[in-house]
Amino acid sequence: MQSYKVFVSLPFKVITQINNNTHNTYMNSRGSIFGNMPPVTKNLIIINLIVWLAMIVLPGRIGGSLEEFGGLHYFKATGFNPVQLVTYMFMHSTGNFAHILFNMFTLWMFGMTLERTFGSARFLFYYMSCGIGAGLIQELAWMLTWENTLTPIIANAMHIDFPEAREILQSPAAQGQVSQWLNIFVTIGASGAIYGVLLAFGMMYPNAPIYLFFVPVPIKAKWMVTGMIALELLIGLSEAAGKSDGIAHFAHLGGMIFGFLIIYYWKKKGTFGGGGYGGY
Length: 280
Prior knowledge:
By secondary structure, the chain is mostly helical. 59% of the residues lie in helices and 7% in strands. The protein has helices at residues 39-57, 60-70, 84-87, 97-118, 120-158, 162-170, 175-181, 191-204, 221-240, 249-269, and strands spanning 4-7, 14-16, 72-73, 185-188, 209-212, 219-220. α5 runs antiparallel to α10 (249-269). The protein is globular and about 55 Å long. The chain starts with a strand and ends in an 11-residue tail after the last helix.
């Protein structure tokens, strides 16, 4: 049966420069990539890189088992384990270098600013909560769409029509086999947490100029985040209608939703004010 893995990937390449009241994310000629990086951001990047390299250099069977164990499965699948809500966000595609490159690049660019704004402990809590929240939203998306996704796959594999395939999936006698088939739904990647980071940056520094590689003029952070939300929602709805591109768009939205709720709660408690540039 064909695989239906979902990679959580970031579609934007971004460069930003924050004013001197926070820090400059550009390296000077004497700096190093880890030189002045705060500890949580640095260690998150290191852990992600170590896991990614382990998935590449370990023998194929072991490397594949890492993804099978750590990738987030649908909760009704036999391969599901609750710990996957944490482990999946530290795993990336070994066949697509851009997957880990853009996620870690964005974490480096924006995570340093947010960690210095939130503090290391609060930033770690925020990052992990967004990643777990993204996984929960992806589980919800699978719960609503798994049958529509599996029906044509089963029909084609068994050379039967769609109604008959749907009857098999709904049959109580076939639920053990269905649980095995559900293992084709696997999500890996840090982008749910990364989208939460981008959402936080847009809320804390809404008017900060963002320079996209493919846009010649700067865009304010708040408009970039708004555009990303709209894009992910539109593509996610299209995916739910059966036009999947293999990217967990609802997980991206989940990271943003949980991020917004956390920052809103902190703001209501008076934990901190805006970060700058007219911050929330």
